[in-house]
Amino acid sequence: MDRRRFVQAGSASISGMLLLKPGTAFGYETNSAVRLGLLGCGNRGKSVATSFAQNTQAQVAALGDLFADNLAGGHDYFGKLNASLGHPAVDAKMLFRGPHAYEQLAQAKELDLVQISTPPFFHVQHPVAAGKHVYCEKPVGIDVQQAKEALEIAKRVKSTQSVDVGFQCRNAPPIATIAEKIKGGALGKIGALTGNYNAPASTEKKREGESADEYRLRNWLWDRALSGDILVEQNIHIIDLCNWMIGARPLKATATGGRNILTHFGDCWDNYQVDFTYPGDIHFSFASTQFGTDGVFDAGLKLFGASGSATVPYSGPIQITGANAWAWQDSTSAGPGSGKFAANGAFSDNLAFADREKERAFLASITDGPAHNQIADGVGTALSCMLARMAGYQHREVTWDDLIANGETYQPGFDLDQFA
Ligand SMILES: NC(=O)c1ccc[n+]([C@@H]2O[C@H](COP(=O)([O-])OP(=O)(O)OC[C@H]3O[C@@H](n4cnc5c(N)ncnc54)[C@H](O)[C@@H]3O)[C@@H](O)[C@H]2O)c1
User: Fold this and answer.
1) Peptide bond just before 22 cis, omega within 30 deg
2) Average pLDDT for the chain
3) Contact in structure between 341 and 298 (CB atoms under 8 Å)
4) Mutation test of ligand 1: which of 136, 137, 216, 356 has the most ligand atoms closer than 8 Å to its C-beta?
5) Which atom of ligand 1 is nearest to the CA of 166?
6) Whose alpha carbon is nearest atom 38 of ligand 1?
7) Model pLDDT for residues 121-164, shown as the tens digit of each residue
C-alpha cells in the first residue's frame, strides 16, 4: 500500500496505567468527544495530546503535573489549542498539581482517557484506577520489578478498556507497510539484523533555587533510576521494531558501552554496543550514541534474509532489495543521517504520520473496538532493553531467565511528597 492510500484509509486500523468505564466503551456517538486527561505536560505530553485533539475525536479536558510551572504552561498551551479547534477550554477545576495528580485524573468521572507522559520511572508507579482508557508512553517499566508489576496490571485490564503503549513508529505508514511485507516472508528466512540509534545530546533544564531532587526530576533523562538509561528510554523504539518484525524476543545479550563523552550530571551511559541472540541463532547487532552536538540524527533497522534485505531508517529510502524488491515511493529525505531529531518524538520524514496514525488507531479501539491491551507487548520490549543494559553494566552475557531472576532494581531514593 502506498502512503496516499494508507492515508486515505485513515488506518482505522500503565503505573501510568490508570485503567473508559466499561459501560461507555464502544458506545460512542459518532463524533462525540472522548475526554482526555493529560498527566505530564512536558514535550511529549503536549505533542501527543495535540495529535489526539487534531486527529481524533479526543478533546483535552484535564491536565496534571508535578510542577506548577509545567502545569501552568500546559494550561496556557491547551487553552490556545482548544480555542483553535473549537473545543471547550480546560476548566480550572480540572487542573491537578503535585505527586497525586494521577489519582485525581484517575478518579475524575468527567474523563474517559488518561494519557501518561511522565518520566519513565513513574509509568508503573501510577495505580490502575477505575474505568479509564490509558495511553502510556514507553517504556513500560525501568526495571524487572516494575515490568512484573505491569504484567499484573495487564491481567486486570477489562475487555472493554483499551491500553496503548507509545510505540508510534509501528504506525508510521512506510514502516507499517514494510513490516507487513517482512512478516509475509518477503525476505525469506531472516538470518541477521543490524540497528542503530544515534541521537544528539540533550540540554540541561535548570531553575533558580531548586533542590537537588527537583533538578534530578527536571533532568530525568540523564538519571538511570528515573529514565532506565538510553537503551530503555530511547533506543527502545528500534529494539521494538526488531522484536515486532521478527515476532520474537531475544534469548540473551552481550553488551559494552559507557560514558565516554558526557561530563554533566547523571549516570546514564552515552553509548552502547549490543549483540542480541534471538531464537534460531539470529543475531541483532545494535549500537547507539547520545552525545552528538552536530545535530545529526540517525536511527534505523536493517534485516538480512535469504531472499533479500530490508532497510528501515527513520529518514531515507525504506526499501526491500532482492527477490521481492520494493520501495516506499514517497520517501522525501536524503537518507539516514539527514534527519532532524525531535525531542518531542514528532519526527518528519518516514515518521511524519506515525503519531497521527497511532492516535487514530487507539481512538478507534475505544469507540469501535476491539480494545487494545498492549501492556505485555510493551513489557516484552522494555525487558529486551533491560537485558542488554544488564549485560553492559555487568560486563557479561545475560540470558532472559537470568534477567528475570536477578535483574537490577532502581529507586530514585527521594520522597515525591516533598513536592505536594
Ligand atoms: N514515543 C516517543 O517518541 C517519545 C518521545 C519523547 C519522549 N517520550 C517519552 O515521554 C515521556 C515524557 O518525556 P518528555 O520528553 O515529555 O519529558 P518532559 O520532562 O518534557 O516532561 C515530563 C513532564 O512530566 C512532569 N512530571 C514529572 N514527574 C511527574 C509525576 N510524578 N507526576 C506528574 N507529572 C510529572 C514534569 O513536570 C514534566 O512536565 C517519557 O517517558 C519519554 O520516554 C516518548
Assistant:
1) no
2) 90
3) no
4) 137
5) 1
6) 42
7) 999 976 555 469 999 999 999 999 999 999 999 999 989 999 99
CB atoms within 10 A of CB 236: 25
pTM: 0.93
Rounded Cα distance, 78 and 63, in Å: 9
CA of 277 to the centre of ligand 1 (A): 31
Instruction: Give distance in angstroms: CA of 245 to centre of ligand 1.
Output: 27
List phi, psi (to 5°) of 391: -60, -40
Pocket test for ligand 1, best of 18, 50, 66, 314 (most atoms within 8 A of CB): 66
DSSP state of 326: E
Nearest residue (by CA) to ligand 1, atom 13, is 44
Count of all residues that appear for the chain in the document: 420
CA-based end-to-end distance of the chain: 51
2, three cell numbers: 502506498
| Strands (DSSP E) found in 226-357 | 252-258, 271-278, 282-292, 298-305, 308-313, 319-322, 326-327
| CA atoms of 290 and 56, how far apart (whole Å) | 33
